[in-house]
Design goal:
Layout lengths: L5 E2 L40 E4 L6 H13 L4 E8 L5 E5 L6 E7 L6 H19 L3 E7 L1 H12 L8 E8 L20 E2 L2 E2 L4 H9 L8 E8 L10 H5 L2 H4 L4 E8 L12 H11 L5
Parallel strand pairs: 1-4, 2-5, 2-6, 3-5, 6-7, 7-10, 10-11
Antiparallel strand pairs: 3-4, 8-9
Helix pairs in contact: 2-3
Length: 285
């Protein structure tokens, strides 16, 4: 890597950040490690990375990860905090077969281009430090857009894990502003051929989708408060992705409704939890 200094808290890989071992940490934003647990071989691991949205923090995915841990779906082995210069601060150690990694951007309002580059640094680290061959992603809102941009922008890089599954929650794929909420929710109408109008972001993805990983499986989740949006992102913007990936990959959609279909509550939604479990882990039970 030529950009960004890796600061690792990993055994003989160097010092620099908090590395907890011997006690279990259940606080949101920290890892859950027990030194008595055996370390699973890296070729048996499939880490799941959770990437928050605009202005997100440890509370964005922390409660969801904690629920998944209690249910026995996996364990939160690692937290990676990314500085604005791309440096990685790593807490924890990958030890389990289905480790959860919480990704936290210190500059949590950085643009998609920066975030996708930072995800690339994280993937290089996982490959170099652990020889991880395969990962899954779960993203919320702008985090999902950054994940998709990472997968298209850095498709030809070989020293990174392959993305096997990606889950997108409430992502504005056809908005002019993919970051903070705007007074008017963008809602560009969809026809059976796609959006009637496309934004610069959507046009970028139109040209880049052929670079998606082969055999990628994708679950796209939208929220509906019975008015065509989740209070921040329209269903049309979320589902506009359909027209970019159809006939190209294993693509599924889910629309959830009810009070917890609000944008900021989608990662606190029981049906969303169940859909993630079914999509990623049920087959292993």
């Amino acid at each position: 890597m030529t950009k960004g200094l890796l600061k690792l808290g990993l055994l003989d890989l160097g010092a620099g950040t908090s590395f907890f071992i011997g006690n279990k940490f259940r606080r949101l934003g920290h890892v859950s490690i027990d030194a008595s647990d055996p370390i699973v071989a890296s070729d048996k691991m499939t880490p799941t990375l959770f990437v928050h949205g605009y202005s997100g923090n440890r509370l964005s995915f922390g409660p969801m990860i904690a629920r998944f841990e209690r249910a026995g779906y996996g364990r939160k082995d690692m937290v990676i905090i990314v500085d604005d210069n791309g440096s990685l601060h790593v807490e924890g150690q990958l030890r389990s077969a289905q480790p959860f990694i919480q990704v936290l951007f210190k500059n949590n309002i950085a643009p998609v281009e920066k975030q996708s580059l930072w995800l690339h640094y994280i993937m290089q680290f996982l490959y170099g430090a652990y020889a991880i061959k395969k990962v899954d992603f779960v993203g919320h809102s702008m985090g999902s857009v950054s994940i998709l941009r990472y997968m298209t922008e850095y498709r030809d890089i070989t020293d990174v894990p392959v993305v096997a599954h990606a889950i997108s929650i409430g992502a504005p794929y056809n908005d002019h502003n993919v970051a903070q909420n705007t007074p008017i929710i963008e809602d560009l109408f969809l026809t059976d051929k796609g959006p009637v109008e496309t934004t610069s972001l959507y046009q970028y993805f139109e040209k880049a989708m052929q670079h998606l990983p082969e055999n990628l499986q994708f679950l796209n989740i939208a929220g509906d408060l019975k008015n065509g949006n989740d209070g921040a992102v329209s269903i049309n913007s979320v589902l506009s992705l359909r027209y970019l990936v159809e006939n190209q990959l294993n693509y599924q959609e889910l629309i959830v409704s009810g009070r917890r279909a609000a944008h900021r509550l989608l990662h606190e939604n029981k049906r969303v939890d169940e859909s993630i479990y079914t999509f990623l882990w049920k087959k292993h039970k």
